[in-house]
Amino acid sequence: MEQRHQDENETSNSGDYFVVKAKDQGVTVIGLTRGKDTRFHHTEKLDKGEVLIAQFTDHTSAVKVRGKAVVYTKHGIIDTEE
Questions:
Q1: What does the pLDDT read at residue 64?
Q2: Which positions fall inside the Tryptophan RNA-binding attenuator protein domain (predicted)?
């Protein structure tokens, strides 16, 4: 069994993956920066059925999802319509 060690550049706040699956056309996924000023730093547009697999990093502390989608995380599944 392979054991993964944390890189020196990786912090305990980074590394978690999440998945966003669009249930409708035009779902927007926005990455928000880490630090004293929270800013938008990356945007992806998904069409119905498309899946985005992403990871929190030293630069990304939060993600905003606009539109009908299902978000899968290690903490559970979130449906934006519920």
A1: 92
A2: 14-81
